[in-house]
Design a protein that fits this description.
Protein name: Tetratricopeptide repeat protein
Strand order of the largest sheet: 1-2
Order of helices and strands: EEHHHHHHHHHHHHHHH
Distance between the termini: 17 Å
Largest sheet: 2 strands, antiparallel
Helix content: 55-70%
InterPro entries: TPR-like_helical_dom_sf
Number of helices: 15
Number of domains: 3
CATH topology of the largest domain: Serine Threonine Protein Phosphatase 5, Tetratricopeptide repeat
Structural class: mainly alpha
Shape: flat
């Protein structure tokens, strides 16, 4: 989870697996941490007999498990269900519990489309790009909602393109940005499309779009300057310099160079994190 959590209640021998962020939790405190920090990702299926059984059997919290089961069987709300968990161990403050309950009540009054949009955007913010792509595609599958608002559909496609670009899928990103621009007529989507084409080394398509969408020489130069400034940013140049130094030090023996392999491992782990389902 990235931080130490003090647990005053029993620790389970067998964890409870939370599928939407691929997380094992071993205690009520960890479960509360998940609820607090991934609030917008919690859906109705969080209320499950499986969770009630785990709390009752693995944590030996039989009274809590029975209370949760009563909410579940009585078609109670997600806000009531989560509040019981949050109040069970003292991990969250009263203000935090009120905030969480308020957000969940608000989500209950939103449509399936609105809730999916919020989840997709939260996945994007946390750089969980594969999950974001899955959610944005689900949104685009809700054709009735999209047809009502072409600009909204365009914005969703723009976000989908951004998620693809985060995984270096520049061809797919460019296609989504292009579709976004055709719908929302936002020049930011067109600029993103052309940037993705450049990163995909599709200079012929770049020229085609410049002419098709009447991008002036001045506007195109401005875009090019912006791309170059990103590629020459301090962060990018620092990483490029470090990679070049490590490769030079390796002198062709890449697999035997521990600093280089460690850096490659870190980059690989960062990419895998973005790809987690």
């Amino acid at each position: 989870m990235g931080e130490l959590i003090l647990c005053s209640h029993p620790i389970a021998a067998m964890p409870y697996y939370i599928d939407n962020i691929s997380l094992n939790v071993y205690s009520l405190e960890e479960l509360c941490y998940y609820i607090e920090n991934h609030l917008y990702l919690i859906e109705a299926d969080f209320m499950s007999e499986e969770l009630c059984l785990w709390i009752g059997q693995e944590l030996d919290e039989k009274d809590l498990a029975q209370s949760l089961r009563s909410v579940l069987l009585g078609n109670g709300s997600l806000s009531d269900f989560t509040e019981l968990i949050l109040r069970s161990c003292g991990y969250c403050s009263e203000d935090t519990i009120h905030h969480i309950r308020s957000v969940l009540l608000d989500m209950q009054n939103k449509s399936v489309f609105e809730c999916s949009k919020i989840r997709a955007d939260r996945y994007m913010e946390s750089e969980k790009y594969v999950k974001a792509i899955h959610e944005y595609r689900k949104l685009l599958g809700m054709e009735e909602e999209c047809k009502k608002n072409p600009v909204l559909e365009g914005n969703i496609r723009h976000n989908l393109g951004t998620a693809c670009a985060g995984l270096f899928l520049f061809d797919e990103a460019a296609a989504n940005f292009l579709n976004a621009y055709r719908l929302n007529q936002n020049r930011e989507s067109l600029a993103a499309c052309m940037a993705a084409c450049r990163l995909a080394k599709k200079t012929d398509i770049l020229k085609k779009y410049k002419e098709e969408f009447h991008v002036s020489d001045e506007a195109f130069k401005s875009m090019s300057d912006q791309w170059n400034s990103v590629l020459k940013s301090e962060d990018i140049l620092k990483k490029q310099s470090e990679a070049e130094r490590l490769i030079k030090d390796a002198q062709g023996q890449l697999e035997e160079n521990k600093p280089l392999m460690e850096q490659i491992r870190k980059w690989s782990e960062a990419y895998k994190k973005s790809c987690r389902l």
